[in-house]
Amino acid sequence: MTNYWKNKKILLTGGSGFFGTHLIEELLQNGAKKENILIPRSKTYDLRSAKNLKEIVKDIDVVLHLAARVGGIGYNRDHPAEMFYDNIMMGTQLMHEAYSAGVSKFVAIGTICCYPKHTPIPFREDNLWNGYPEETNAPYGLAKKMLLVQAQAYRQQYGFNAIFLLPVNLYGPGDNFDTASSHVIPALIRKFVEAKKMNAPSVEVWGTGKSTREFLYVKDAAKAVRMATESYDNSDPVNIGAGFEISIKDLVKKIRDMVGFKGEVVFDRSKPDGQPRRMLDTSRAVKEFGYKATTTFDDGLKSVIDWYESSLLQKPQG
Question: Is 140 a catalytic residue?
Fold first, then answer.
């Protein structure tokens, strides 16, 4: 519990989403008041509209910008224009209106997709500009990356206190399991659970399985954002991760075994792998605001599988 959040009026975009719901829980546990957290809903506020943004930043102390149009490799590949336009319009205009309204702290949530395709492992923040992002993620990654440029420019010219955080892929209870837009962990869990239920002989997985990823448990990510907001005031971007990498092949095996699917796994090599490798150097987060992830990957995965299977049992049948 800290005094930082006491009486602070907070604008949390994306607050009704997967990450947002966990961040709200983290804030409430650390002194924020529910009535002081404004969550603009997409049905009411189009966050691409400057007029709407001007309205919602009035009398706000802290902006936590989580809202984004996101998806997996297939969704990114099929919707590049929307991924670029929606994300850049939401973020750029929101930061400008927040500065204009006198907001005291702006926290921009970036993405690991900001990094160049062939970044040396582990990804260090100093390598952020040393190449072009992986092609299927580039429109999304570059749109989010412009928030870093804007944050640094507004800090330099206006003294605006904006920070930029770079989380890896998040996972956890309440994740998006939609087949069209889910990321790799919920997508695999759903595939194996359904295959087990139907006694399917095999499950198909995109790519070769050779690419690697790093995953951060959503509750750990929420803690990182809360800690950075409280005590990090600098123009340098900060990685938020768990500090490990796992191949998609090993991830598939781990989830298959945890779900209890006994069939075969078939890799569709005609489908893209995405970025070859991903793993963050998280030393800056440790140094600057004492953050380190604490949830083991096996414990985190088990909680997601348990949550998904229990949610299926609660759904009406027929």
Answer: yes
